[in-house]
Amino acid sequence: MADLEAAPPVAAARPAALPVRRLIWLALPITVLLLLYAVPWWTLVMSGTEWPSAVATFGTVLFAAGALGTPALMILGHGRKNDAAARVGDTLVGVIWVLFTWSVLSLVLRAALAAAGVADPARSRITALAVIAITVPLLIWGYAEAMRVPRVRRTDVVIPRLGKGLDGTRIVVLADTHYGPINRVRWSRGVADLVNTLDADLLVHAGDIADGTPSMRREQSAPLAGMKARLGRVYVTGNHEYMSGAESWVDRMNELGWTPLHNEHLVVERGGDKLVVAGVDDRTARSSGINGHGADHARALAGTDPDLPVVLVAHQPKQIAQAVESGADLQISGHTHAGQIWPFNFLVRLDQPAVRGLTRHSERTQLYTSSGTGFWGPPLRIFAPSEVSVLTLRSA
Fold first, then answer.
1. How does pLDDT run across 298-319, given as a tens digit for each residue?
2. What pTM was estimated for this model as a whole?
3. C-alpha triplet 105, 110, 114: angle, nearest 5°
4. Which residues are within 8 A (CB) of 383 and not within 5 positions of it... i.e. 6 or more apart?
5. Angle, in degrees to the nearest 10, between helices 53-74 and 2-41
6. Which residue, 377, 288, 373, 379, is CA-closest to 338?
7. Count of C-beta atoms within a 10 Å radius of residue 298
8. 194, 373 Cβ separation under 8 angstroms
9. Residue ranges of the domains in the chain?
10. Looking at domain 151-394, which CATH architecture does it have?
């Protein structure tokens, strides 16, 4: 009887906890956004610069408009699929991140000037102008880097179990094309032309193909159909597909002549030797609510010969733990964009076991992380160049 009487207070406490949790999750992005705008505002406008009142007022209004407008544009752009709003919102996010980064780093210059005896307003004005002088060229260069056809990054991968007939097999990797609000049809065609100069045996798309549905990104994705590879073209879903109609993108890739590896594998042969090429869904697939989706390594490798080498495609590097358990020789991933805008790569490293390049995770299993072929959100790549990867497999 005592247990029955104690139950109602516990049940009543649960609804009260939910609003608190929601408030915390709401407060966190708002706090981050305010900080991103407040630090550059203070550095450029209010730190002792003593600009004329008209300049200070204009700067304050500009930063306030950005802080208020950014979340509205992001919700309208990405939540309601309005490409024009997404383009402006994404660009604002990129600009303010770069301004925030160099405003924080400018504290070193401010301290050096103070130590040299430079007083305000000269100290603060020099610091503000230095931030602008660094930020503007970086934004111009970062935009050019984002919009260019990626460079080719070549890496040899030694796989001891690889048969001699497969030695020299070339795997060309695309990842994170993110066809999106900025219409990059010409860029997409340029990537296809580049891929077709690389003499691929196997062509891999490691996920995050687009932001938007296939009908929205039909023209941008069309050049994928013209990419050539001797042994096959395979694709796995990334986390962004689960925000843009994953099943529709699987169908679209089938339509373009690619083989979606939805927890599946195929066996390719070269020079009399065989290689298992498997793919799993993104790690977010299971929580997406789409029936039948969710990374399943056992299913992907079911029925394979355990003596054959395995190349596994999985969108996120952190899926490497399951690749190690399943005995894969090489996992190919994307997702990180190598940080995309420095120094975001350090934050990415807190979440992922690798940011870019070839790393080893067990005696057998290696991981190659592409820095991405395109970009997400802000049309910027700063100290994180895009790539089309060429992995040449080597036997021991």
1. 999 999 999 999 999 999 999 9
2. 0.91
3. 155
4. 339, 342
5. 140
6. 373
7. 11
8. no
9. 2-145, 151-394
10. 4-Layer Sandwich (3.60)
